Amino acid sequence: METKQRTWKPTATGILSIVNGSFCLLGFLGVIIAIIVLSASSYWQDLINPEIYPMTIGFLVIISVIAAIFLLIIGLLALLGGISALQRKRWGLALAGSIVGIFCNSAILGILSLIFLAMSKDEFTS
Q1: Is the pLDDT of residue 12 over 70?
Q2: Could you tell me the CA-to-CA distances from 69 to 18, 27, 104 in Å, in that order?
Q3: Residue 101 burial by CB count (10 A; 0-12/13-18/19+): exposed, middle or buried?
Q4: Hey, which of 21, 91, 113, 120 would disulfide with 98, CB 3.0 to 4.6 Å?
């Protein structure tokens, strides 16, 4: 029976995906803080002249909530993909985590993660 050779590539993929997912989750926290500041302050409404700048604070909060949900989903998926890459299990989840990692704060980390993952597909159990 042939044993699979273990290389550094899945480990590097896992670390890159976890770091990238952590960056996304930090961005998520930043957006949440911005939502809290925007929605809790009536001061901002006085600064906006509707004739010059018609966008309301409510609209900015809605856009920020959508961005926060997006960052949360791709951050968690990148983290789960990185964990499965470190375990060398669930290649599909590791692939999904690497792909969404491209849309996180650092696209270079996501691309490197995807390249290393593609080079080490035979090391995964399923």
Answers
A1: yes
A2: 18, 11, 13
A3: buried
A4: 113
18 contacts 79 by C-beta, under 8 angstroms = yes
**What is the SS3 assignment for 22-47?**
HHHHHHHHHHHHHHHHHHHCCHHHHH
What is the reported pLDDT for 1? Answer: 43
pLDDT tens-digit readout, 101-117: 888 877 888 899 989 98
> How far apart are the C-alpha atoms of 88 and 104, rounded to whole Å?
23
The pTM (predicted TM-score) of the whole model is: 0.81
